[in-house]
Amino acid sequence: MRLQGTACAAAGLLLALATGCTGGAEDGAPAPSPAPARTTGESPRATPAPMPTPSPADPVSLPALMERGHTGSDLRLGDVLDRNSAYTRYAVTYEANGLTISGIMNIPEGKGPFPALVLAHGYIDPDVYFSGQGMPREQDRLARAGHVVLHTDYRNHARSDEDPDNDVNLRLGYTEDVIGAALALRNSGRPEIDGDRIGLFGRSMGGGVVYNTLVVAPGLFDAAVAHAPVSARPQENIDHFQRPDGDPLVAEIEEKHGTPEEDPAFWRGVSPLTYAGRVSEPLLIQHGTADDTCPLAWSREAAAAFEDAGKDVELRTVPGEGHTFGPRWAAEMDVTEAFFARHLR
Hints:
Belongs to the AB hydrolase superfamily. This protein is of the alpha/beta class. The protein has helices spanning 11-19, 62-67, 136-144, 173-186, 205-216, 234-242, 249-257, 264-269, 296-308, 329-343, and strands spanning 2-4, 38-39, 69-70, 72-83, 87-96, 99-108, 114-120, 148-152, 193-203, 223-227, 283-288, 313-318.
């Protein structure tokens, strides 16, 4: 793990603190490594060697997603939402595991094919969310840099199909939507899209979706970036965001799945840290030191777990920046663009 910014001075201490609670599995017990996700349309490079699979997997778990035969197809361009000298912005839909998912896609002007990026946005109440809302600055900048940008709305958002159980099932469906987006890009047949060069970029809750996707479908993407991600332990997100607000969903979740004390195996099965050894893509994590929404400690723990598993991970701390990145946003996007340029060649 390459630690940048303020994390450098504390690297030794951080890794020592992380050792007792991360490593490839939680609670110090080595977790079994399930078989890689079967993703329709993957090229040969995206299929790692088979690994043992626990049986049966809890249907609400990362192993269950690993076992599933994921599909992504039927990428359809709808209305032109904007056109400028750099790119054209479209409303789009695609199919992911039987659901129609909406989003927006920016296609650069000029001769392609262009490398593609899937963007996974942070939490916005689906009741007020509108298509493409999550990462507008990033959508614009990355398209101007020569990427096809597909920003997924996720299920239950905008014009996407409904999945009534998604929230009580810890929103694992968003991981399926991101996998489906990559497969839809790869299978699109559109001359503007280079289906062999696809990156993944998420922020906040979308950073957690990035972690899940990397362990569920290793090799599907060529590289991944997470900005200010949530905790890789879902119970910490519940305790931090939902329980203090008295969210009634917490009681539903615990009634269906139990608490971490009642069913620790379930909660290990929904944490990507348990399966850190499956990741095959280089991962860049960028997190502000003044983030009071998602504590920096969460990214430090995740980066340490991936490093302990021997993965190519870089944690870059951003001095003085909060959750959304302000004065340093442009500089951090320079780093993000350079990272994708190295790995999407």
